[in-house]
Amino acid sequence: MDRTKISPSAVSERLPRKLLWVLAGLTLAWGFNWTAMKVALAEVSPWGFRTLCLGGGAAILFSLLRAVGTPLAVPRSQWGRLTLLALLNITCWNILIAYGVAMIPSGRAAVIAYSMPVLAIPLSVWLLGERMNARKLAGIALGLGGLALLLADQVSSLQAAPVGAFLVLGAAGTWAIGTVLQKKFPVGVPVSVYTAWIMLIGGIPIFAVAAVTESGGHPPISLQAWLGIAYNVFVAFAWAHWAWIKIATSVSVTVFSLSMLLIPVVGVLSGMIFLGERPSASESAAMLLILAALVTVVAPRRS
Fold it and tell me: For the CA atoms of 138, 140, 146, 147, what is the dihedral angle to 10 degrees?
């Protein structure tokens, strides 16, 4: 397991090459997860679904950490910030997304959720003192331009399910705030240990509500829904949450935010392939703009 500790000084203005495979895996894992969630939530309640995902994901991580002998202790002075970060990044995000994606198409939910950079980047300038340069500004313009095209396709449809759209937008907001505070108030433990703890702590309110609301039993769940749950537990939670925190704590918020914009592209493609959700010409143009934005943060610096 990765023993690298979270540090406010460990910030890069480029995505290091050693993290390219992490970003590629995270993009595919979370991109295709929007479809997996849609399938699972057709048969499982949001509270029950998130309980299985968070509980299972945390159990896998803690088991692996114990197996390799990684200390699990958190400094006593940092439990408060750990709890706050868990509530923002895990509790709020997971419940808002679970209810939102049950109300609107998965591709649309992915696009709205990854409007996160619109809030995260200004917050990083204000709270973290991150500086803008020409390359960053170009990446932001390209990325947000692509996101605007994707959103433009969805505006008329949002009126049909405004609650779902606002729930997902709220999730994007809590993720943006949590990402910035995660950089401002780092927890002095390895990334893998931090990931396991925030999943467990962030899951506690969800476990409590599920224990009450799901006590009456549940109708049989199809194999398709169980596969969606299994994908979430092993891929989207146990591994992808570690990958997300690894990238988020290794680069600036701007670089991280732009790197995440490729995920809704995969989410849209996933909805097309597995759910029959139809793309448009503007979605294709948006994907090209987002890919161009990604180049600005992964291209090597000229010597």
Answer: -170
